[in-house]
Amino acid sequence: MYFEWYPYESFGLDLVTWVWMLLTVFVIPKLLNHFGDIASICWFWLMLVLLCCVQQWFFDTDSFGSFFGMLRVLSWGLFLFGPIACWIVYRWHNDSVSQRIFGGLGIVLTMIGVDAFWIEPNLIDITNYTITSDKIADPIRIVLLADIQTDAINTQTRDALQVAMNQHPDLIVFAGDYLQHSFWKDYQANIQPFNDVLIEYGLHNIPSIVVEGDAEYRWGNQWHALFENMDATILDPSDRTLWNDIEITGLTMVDSKNGVVPQYSSSNRFTILIGHNPNFALQRPDADLYLAGHTHGGQVVIPFIGPLITFSDLPVDQVAGRTDFTNGSTLIVSRGIGLERYDAPRLRFLCRPEVAVIDLLPQP
Question: Do 25 and 109 lie in a common domain?
Fold first, then answer.
């Protein structure tokens, strides 16, 4: 459950986690002296698993939220209290081999935590794609901004907008998930600041196409105010528009997830299909270019395994970057800019935020 008097949405869960894990590591020296390091390690993991169960029973109202809460608890346990536990075991051992093992593990966990929570989320990649077509008369540059997904206008948001403007786009595509809050009062309070920062960085002077994401779906059409006083075409509900002789179709969150796509009107025009959730690409609808976000590229990518969580039905090799299909369509899925909010741990690992730049060029 959420309580509006908390300083922030996950304050209660964080408070319980810190107290629980501090008590857990406090007991470790006593276990070491009586039972050894194996029992101490088992104790640490047992308490962490129990804490995951406690957060599900007491702090969330549905399984989706409980899943994010579990990840938050595990992140605190591994990357903050894990190194503390390793340090305690390191000090208890006298032999150099054990000290190297536990000291090294503590250092690795600390380095991963620092990178995932503080470094990578603020390192924005610029990914360039080039698409040629005989339907394109003159070069066009599109900047794809997906999953800005913030609960406050922070430095990372500003940096991403500045990066976008530095690419000198002809068109900006906003692919959903702009602000994310649990309560309408918090969402409403940030609408004007979000709109102000878009205008501050000059995005109001660039033609824009805007579609709905998961974070907007719950607020009806009130999120449209995020893009007031801008040269923005909001395609909500799902609709088509013509820009620079390019036919662009935008999908609602539900339509993008379920693959409900309107027919395009002319095969002679270059066609772009935009949806927040890339599931619509599974249907291979008629369009030259598909643009999407939603997956965050997994947000956490494990070496040699790939992203563990994408919340998409696409194969994992298609949830980020470019995929060229045999029907002639190209899918580009952005890793997004921001982070999952609510109870989710705010981290990225081997999956930096991204501003995607697509150059449409005439066929040589």
Answer: yes
CATH number (domain holding residue 177): 3.60.21.10
Both 149 and 161 in one domain: the answer is yes
Instruction: State both tokens at 39.
Output: 């029992």
Other beta carbons within 10 angstroms of residue 132's beta carbon come to 12
132 plus 115 within the same structural domain:
no
- Regarding whether 116 and 129 lie in a shared domain, the answer is no
Q: What does the block give as tokens for 260?
A: 């409900």
Of 120, 140, 173, the residue that ends a domain is 120
The answer to whether residues 289 and 273 touch, using CB atoms and an 8 Å cutoff, is yes
Instruction: Give the span between the Cα atoms of 356 and 241, in whole angstroms.
Output: 22
Could you write out the DSSP letters of every residue in 63-99?
A: HHHHHHHHHHHHHHIIIIIHHHHHHHHHHH--SHHHH
- Asked whether residue 16 falls in the same domain as residue 68, the answer is yes
Q: Are residues 98 and 164 in the same domain?
A: no
Containing domain of residue 62, as a range?
11-120
pLDDT tens digits along 200-228: 999 999 999 999 999 999 899 999 999 99
Q: Retrieve residue 270's tokens.
A: 């270059």
In the chain, how many domains are there?
2
Spatial separation of the C-alpha atoms in residues 301 and 262, rounded to whole Å: 34
Count of other CB atoms within 10 angstroms of residue 27: 13
Is residue 97 packed enough to be buried (19+ CB in 10 Å), middle (13-18) or exposed (0-12)? Answer: exposed
By DSSP bridging, strand 289-292 and strand 270-274 are parallel
What is the residue type of 236? Answer: D
- Give the full edge-to-edge strand order of the sheet including 330-333: 239-243, 246-250, 270-274, 289-292, 330-333, 321-324
Question: Which runs of consecutive H residues, i.e. helices, occur in 115-237?
Answer: 155-166, 184-200, 214-217
Return the CA Rg of the chain.
23
| Tokens read off for 2 | 């959420």
Is 176:250 a contact under the CB 8 Å cutoff?
no
Tens-digit pLDDT profile for residues 75-131: 999 999 999 999 999 999 999 999 999 999 999 999 999 999 999 999 999 999 999
In a domain, 189, yes or no: yes
This prediction has a pTM of 0.91
